[in-house]
Design a protein that fits this description.
Blueprint (H helix, E strand, L loop, with lengths): L3 E4 L1 H13 L5 H16 L10 H9 L10 E5 L3 E5 L5 H19 L1 E10 L5 H9 L3 E9 L19 E7 L2 E8 L6 H10 L8 E2 L5 E2 L12 E2 L4 H24 L14 E9 L1 H5 L2 H19 L15 H13 L1 E4 H13 L4 H8 L4
Parallel strand pairs: 3-4
Antiparallel strand pairs: 1-12, 2-3, 4-11, 5-6, 5-11, 6-7, 8-9, 8-10
């Protein structure tokens, strides 16, 4: 197993700012990209955190990622927006797209945002959190244009991406409920993390290059490639596959005008389309009183659910978002773990961008 560095949050933040400056990004973009990636690590989603920077650097160097690029409005229908991310950093494009949608949902009560051609949008839960902070319910269907890495239910090779689905519900008096998951059994980035740590993935997650079950994460990371499986297992895999299909049709065909339809593994860019629905509960419920009634009913239901006694081997019943908040509190206080293989890959990416690996190490408080 690979060694792990435990890096204090302030030091990690400064080190990652150094790396992102290597893209030529202006300071606001540096803050957005570094902050979003580190936030993914803080919430326990290392697959969408700073370990993505080597992929971003490779995409930038081959021309598939365009720094200092903002979202473009292609169609403005008031409560209906079609946007082009122009291959900009998804950490910037996602925030801008949600800001536009939030403004329209506040004006009209709801808004549909169809975003295409954004570079990797990162942890989609961040955009549901942005909407929830504005008091809005949101739904997000996302497709992935990159190397296909997930097999359809019953299929023996990869035909689409991990196609995440996300929903967020704000509730007064408690943190929002944020449901955010890949439609594959595990996210592809988790196989990268597992390989870098020298660990297997659980059974039932992965096929090898001839379509046989395997626990070796390399088949999702380096050629010859296999395929991840949709969530749901042998009995319920049709459910994960069906939701992934809807993400491709809505986030890809409808929102972006682009779907995953080739086996090209040569390009490093990761493009996302996202079909988002934002809704103001007060507008739907007829005003503040109706919104308060919704909140009370939702809170009562959550209390009822969490009153279920814990089964053996489990802790208290949680709702979506609780685990991420617990991770964030712990890692903010104790530091962020980064395996040594991933760290070396980040240093190599920094060097490819013209940033001194020694300076990155020094900023992080590491030797070398």
């Amino acid at each position: 197993m690979a060694d792990t560095h435990l890096i204090p949050l302030p030091r990690l933040t400064e080190a990652m700012r150094l790396v992102v400056r290597g893209f030529g990004s202006h300071e606001a973009e540096v803050e957005a990209v570094a902050g979003n990636l580190i936030e993914a690590n803080l919430t326990g989603h290392d697959s969408h955190g700073i370990g993505m920077l080597p992929r971003y650097a490779a995409a930038f160097l081959e021309g598939g990622l365009a720094p200092n690029t903002g979202v473009q409005v292609l169609h403005d229908g008031g409560a209906l927006l079609k946007l082009d991310g122009r291959r900009g950093f998804g950490q910037v494009i996602g925030q801008q797209a949600m800001a536009l949608g939030i403004d329209r949902a506040r004006r009209h009560g709801s808004c549909i945002v169809a975003l295409g051609n954004s570079h990797h949008l990162g942890r989609i839960g961040a955009w549901a959190e942005q909407a929830a902070a504005a008091g809005l319910v949101s739904l997000h269907f996302v497709n992935v244009i990159s190397r296909a890495i997930v097999a359809p239910h019953g299929g023996g090779d990869a035909r689409f991406g991990t196609n995440p689905f996300c929903a967020g519900v704000p509730l007064a008096g408690r943190p929002p409920v944020i449901l955010d998951f890949a439609t594959s059994v595990i996210a592809q980035g988790k196989t990268r993390v597992a390989m870098n740590k020298g660990e297997p993935v659980p059974e039932g997650c992965l096929l090898d290059d001839v379509g046989l079950p395997t626990t070796d994460p390399r088949y999702s990371v380096v050629p010859p490639f296999g395929a991840l499986l949709p969530f749901g297992g042998a009995l319920g895999g049709h459910k994960g596959y069906g939701l992934a299909l809807m993400c491709e049709l809505l986030g890809g065909a409808l929102a972006a005008g682009m779907t995953q339809r080739d086996d090209d593994a040569s390009r490093k860019r990761v493009l996302n389309g996202m079909f988002s629905v934002l809704l103001d509960p007060a507008a739907l419920a007829g005003g503040d009183e109706g919104a308060a009634a919704f909140g009370a009913e939702a809170q009562a239901f959550i209390h009822w659910v969490q009153a279920s006694p814990a089964r053996e081997g489990f802790g208290p019943v949680q709702v979506a978002g609780d685990a991420e908040r617990a991770h964030r509190a712990r890692r903010s206080a104790e530091g962020v773990p980064v395996d040594s293989t991933s760290w070396q890959e980040i240093l190599a990416a920094a060097q490819s961008l013209g940033v001194s690996p020694q300076a990155v190490n020094a900023a992080a408080g590491l030797r070398g």
